[in-house]
Specification:
This protein is of the alpha+beta class and about 70 residues long. The protein is built from 3 helices and 2 strands. The chain has a domain of about 50 residues. The relative contact order is 0.17.
Length: about 70
């Protein structure tokens, strides 16, 4: 499935509006996306009201050490 930039912007805005309405916030933890989800969300005006922080842990080592992901045996 692919989506357009316009679809990503509308989706990020919808997520932000829902979070703001609920008085909630979001944290992203990304790997293969390399921070793309966080980039889309922080591109929304006023995102600092509901986007708390984001982490990008790309290597298996970083996921194990920093995020507590169980290594695959």
């Amino acid at each position: 499935m692919s989506c357009t930039t316009d679809e990503l912007v509308r989706g990020a805005e919808a997520v932000g509006n829902a979070l703001k309405a609920a008085g909630a916030s979001v944290v992203t933890v990304e790997s293969c996306t390399g921070g793309w989800v966080g980039q889309c969300l922080t591109g929304v005006g006023g995102a600092s009201a509901w986007y708390e922080r984001g982490f990008v842990a790309y290597s298996n080592r970083s996921k194990i050490e920093l995020l507590g992901v169980d290594p695959v045996n």
